[in-house]
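Fold description:
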Amino acid sequence: MALPTVTPTRTVAAVPVTDLPSRHPDAWRAATRHAFLGAVRDGTIPVAAFDTWLVQDARFVADLLRFQARLLARVPRPAQAVLAGGLVALVDELAWFEEQAALRGLDLGTPALPATAAYAELLGRLDDADVGTALTALWTIERTYLDAWSHARPGAEGYHAFVEHWTQPGFADYVAGLEAAADGVPAPDADAVFTEVVAAETAFWAMAQDSAW
């Protein structure tokens, strides 16, 4: 009796999330080396542009808080601690935004601009994505933020405290924790969600820059 022919199943190795920036260097550079960040570093950014970004980022953080709270209920047990810690940090971050807005006379109730609304829509779609994809997206969001503000160091006079706030060691530790969580549940197509998130980040910088230039 002849044995049946078995076709080997091809296994695609998971991509560590830290490899993603080097797989998409142009998109990564656009998101983390944007002219907006260089202008914060050298002091040429118009105050109105920075304030626009600050208000819109506060709206984004509120959207991210809701997304992350929903994701927490879906992730495997080993990933829960880092996401829960991140949620506490986001609550504190919103309070910090409120303090900064009061000092600068800004209205955090300003409507979302198109790039902010599009980012919120992306987060909404990620609610329906598999856990691995959602975790890769969350890591990409925070890693982009960390690398982008690190590029703006030390920040010009008037912006140094902001840059320092967004590059503190505790934030880097949090990003490292998200890396472990994302690698623990590989995304089916990490490259696709990575490029979509960094495109949203690039659009967010451009939105603020274009508001005053």
Notes: The chain has a mean pLDDT of 92. The chain has one domain: 20-212. The CA atoms of residues 49 and 210 lie 8 Å apart. The two ends are 78 Å apart (CA to CA).
